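SEVERITY: medium
COMPONENT: batch folding queue
REPORTER: lab tech (J.R.)

DESCRIPTION
The queue accepted two submissions in a row. Attaching both inputs and their returned structure tokens so the on-call engineer can compare them side by side.

ATTACHMENT 1
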Amino acid sequence: MQIVFNNPVLYVVSYPSVDSIEVIDKRLGRGTLLSGDTAARFRVELASVLEGEEDERDADLDIFLDQFDALMTQPAIYQ
């Protein structure tokens, strides 16, 4: 398990042993576990968003997360 990204909006954890990535949208309180090609796409696109200009990053992150909104169906439970 490796924490890839954590900020007030998004929490992303990679599970390399099973080629999966867990994504939690903190705004919605929902998340999903992505694997295979979907996980690979998410990793590449997240890296691209994070490489962008810092002052535009929040807006770009919102737009990026909206692409995966339909997949985020599991309630996030914080313990």
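ATTACHMENT 2
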Amino acid sequence: MSMVLVVEDSIPQREMITELLKGNGLSVAAAMDGVEALEQIQAGEHPDLVVLDIVMPRMNGYEVCRRLKSDPITQHVPVILCSSKGEEFDRYWGMKQGADAYIAKPFQPMELLGTVKQLLRG
């Protein structure tokens, strides 16, 4: 079973994404910000995919994405940036940080689920 790490500071958003993914047969871990996400990964949580908010306290999603993609252990893990920052520049900048996909909030649940499944298939 694939494990997805959901990194989102908004509790309702985090719970909604977690329930959506669990309801579709995925194992889910959650973190409330970028620092917590990196701590979980360094402690041995090895997600198959990361769903990452951008605007968060302590460390934003762009920085988390850069760190994941520059680490040989996690550089292959697909990252979906999922943010209310929906301008074309935000999408461009997210992809420049190494993201594999960018989904603007609010999103349709099937859009996120389809992207997750596509990236997990490789």
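NOTES FROM REPORTER
Residues 109-121 form the longest helix (13 residues).
No errors were logged for either attachment.
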